[in-house]
Design goal:
This protein is α+β, with helices and mostly antiparallel strands. The chain is built from five helices and three strands; from the N terminus they run ααβββααα. Strands 1-3-2 form a three-stranded mixed sheet. Helix 1 packs across helix 4. It comes from Bifidobacterium colobi.
Length: 142
């Protein structure tokens, strides 16, 4: 019966002549990249808002892109480079898009990054529904 290499007793040497030991232990979580951690933080904020406002959040689509488009639409005088929202039209649901690189470059710590993500998501949802961000999340802006 074939066994995974970490269950075998003998490993081959580390001089390029065979398999090495596993890089991560079988019980340790794998290393997360900055992109993966950013996606997890966005998903956590969406889940948090969905618990408070399921009627508002469930019909929306959320996306994360690396950078904003290079040519903003002509009717935006001061385009927001951190996030953008698109109203529903022609059978396409309303969408909120967060741009990872502009948000990450402004945040210095993990806590600042989480707060920036929260503020962007709340601001875009409030913009889509024509409400103030404080109505969606009372902690917005702190």
């Amino acid at each position: 019966m074939l066994q995974p290499p970490w269950n075998e007793r003998v490993y081959r040497n580390r001089h390029g002549r065979g398999m090495r030991t596993p890089m991560f232990g079988i019980r340790l979580p794998r290393y997360r990249t900055r992109t993966g951690m950013f996606d997890d933080m966005v998903a956590a904020q969406i889940r948090r808002l969905n618990e408070a406002w399921p009627d508002l959040i469930q019909p929306l689509q959320f996306a994360v892109e690396d950078v904003p488009p290079s040519d903003p639409v002509p009717w935006q005088v001061n385009p927001n480079m951190a996030s953008q929202c698109f109203p529903a039209s022609h059978g396409i649901p309303a969408r909120v898009v967060l741009y990872r690189m502009p948000i990450q470059t402004e945040a210095r710590t993990k806590m600042e990054l989480q707060l920036a993500i929260r503020d962007e998501v709340v601001a875009r949802v409030a913009e889509l529904y024509g409400r103030r961000p404080e109505e969606i999340d009372p902690d917005w802006g702190f």
